[in-house]
Design a protein that fits this description.
The chain contains 14 helices and 19 strands. With 444 residues, it is an alpha+beta fold. The two termini are 16 Å apart.
């Protein structure tokens, strides 16, 4: 095996098309079971020994193969994708690959299915070139990644030996202003919560609002006690355990910029919060926890002027190191009670996990960065974390393994919108980068 082995594009598009052709959004278990079966078949065809683990949700597919070196690298992937939304917003069938202007279009090509296929093709290339892998590999692909990975912790506890690894590599995050993927030494954690306020047992005329409480107003008042109009999270104790970035992290954050113009143009965004730009954006996305509202709904849904019977809101927190999902949930519960809003019902939604934190100086993180040299022309910029969540802390805890996440999507990739896309060259380079990482791991 030489370092010049290159991924062939002959079959990559057709294999990705077969996977994209199967819908698989969170909660659609039957669809996800079909996707899992296709993922398992693709892993076998790539030369891996495969097991499909059942869970209360979507199956978890695990592919394994030993290598010449005892070092074992675990690749974390998810095969579930965002719902396509209104098909009329797409320029083509979202569940069929389309090729235009050297880019591939289809749901999942930039988030989930595309990176997975790129990595499987990299493994197949290594095996075909030399009959073996330079190091051991474990590939884990879950179908609940967009739903908070509710079954990963249990699977790790039950299948510890099956999944054991010396380091963990994932896909996620951004690219720098030159289009090179960033290498993240950590990821943010996740907590998802549903708030519910209830009122009368039946919808009532709006004229009774002088004497009957409206649960939708009650819910809105609760939400204003959680976050201010200055983007400050108001929960008592929320920031108490957080440390600011260290000297090394601050230096790394100042050294990178994203293509701000490409972002604002692709997202049709007039400006960033507080007119932030350049390093301020990078630092905010890497170091600040968030509280985001996904949806507010009333029951019943109606265009009539009435007092609803109930109101719900779904919020999510992206957490930084030393913040833990259950602890933040408990703080939220106490905070609302102190504000006279104890009647607001709180439900912690399934899944969630703390943030992962590996040292910027870790040997594996440096290896993953340096492996970018032959593919992207330079080592990848290392950042402490970015504006995304992954359950990598669970692997940290289970194996004491360092983690690294490699950026993939571009500002216009539209991973949650219509016409999701990725340049074909990015798929090839993502797989080629894995080859370089595995060659380096084999020398460990």
């Amino acid at each position: 095996m030489t370092e010049s082995a290159l991924i062939s594009s002959d079959h990559l598009i057709s294999h990705l098309d077969q996977l994209v052709g199967l819908p698989g959004s969170p909660g659609n278990t039957e669809d996800l079971i079909a996707v899992a079966a296709r993922v398992a078949a693709r892993m076998r065809n790539s030369g891996l020994h495969v097991e499909t683990l059942t869970t209360p949700g979507a199956p978890i597919v695990v592919g394994r193969r030993s290598g010449r070196s005892p070092f074992t690298l675990l690749l974390y992937h998810h095969y579930d994708v965002a719902p396509p939304g209104a098909w009329r917003s797409w320029n083509h069938d979202p569940f069929q690959i389309a090729e235009r202007e050297q880019a591939l279009f289809g749901r999942g090509v930039a988030a989930g299915k595309g990176p997975l296929i790129a990595h499987l093709h990299a493994l197949a290339t290594l095996i075909e070139s030399d009959g073996d892998l330079p190091c051991g590999i474990v590939v884990i692909a879950e179908g609940d990644g967009n739903a908070g990975s509710p079954h990963i912790a249990t699977t790790l506890a039950e299948q510890r030996e099956l999944l054991r690894a010396d380091a963990v590599l994932a896909t996620g995050g951004d690219r720098d202003s030159l289009g090179r993927p960033c290498c993240y030494a950590g990821t943010k954690g996740l907590l998802q919560v549903r708030l519910r306020a209830t009122g009368a047992g039946m919808p009532l005329p709006a004229g009774l609002a002088a004497s009957v409480p409206n649960p939708l107003w009650r819910l809105l008042w609760a939400l204003t006690q959680i976050k201010s109009d200055q983007e400050e999270i108001l929960i008592n104790g929320f920031y108490d355990t957080i440390d600011g970035p260290g000297r090394g992290e601050s230096k790394a954050l100042r050294a990178v910029t994203f293509d701000e113009e490409a972002r604002t143009l692709a997202w049709d965004l007039p400006q960033f919060l507080f007119a932030m730009n350049d390093a301020a954006i990078v630092q905010a996305e890497a170091t600040l926890p968030t509280c985001n509202i996904t949806a507010i709904t009333a029951e019943p849904v109606s265009d009539l002027a009435l007092i609803p019977t109930a109101a719900n809101a779904r919020i999510d927190f992206q957490l930084v190191p030393r913040q833990y999902p259950q602890a933040v949930f408990d703080l939220l519960y106490s905070h609302l009670a102190e504000k006279g809003l104890a009647d607001i019902q709180l439900e912690r939604l399934p899944g969630g996990y703390p943030g992962a934190a590996t040292s910027l100086d870790d040997r594996f993180v440096g290896l993953a960065s340096e492996a970018g040299n032959p593919v992207f022309g330079s080592a990848l910029t290392i950042l402490p974390r970015g504006p995304f969540t992954q359950p990598l802390a669970l692997f940290n805890q289970a194996f004491g393994a360092p983690t690294a996440t490699i950026g993939f999507a571009r500002p216009d990739s539209a991973t949650f919108a219509a016409n999701e896309r990725i340049p074909f060259s990015d798929l090839i380079n993502h797989g080629q980068h894995l080859i370089e990482i595995m060659l380096a791991c084999g020398r460990e």
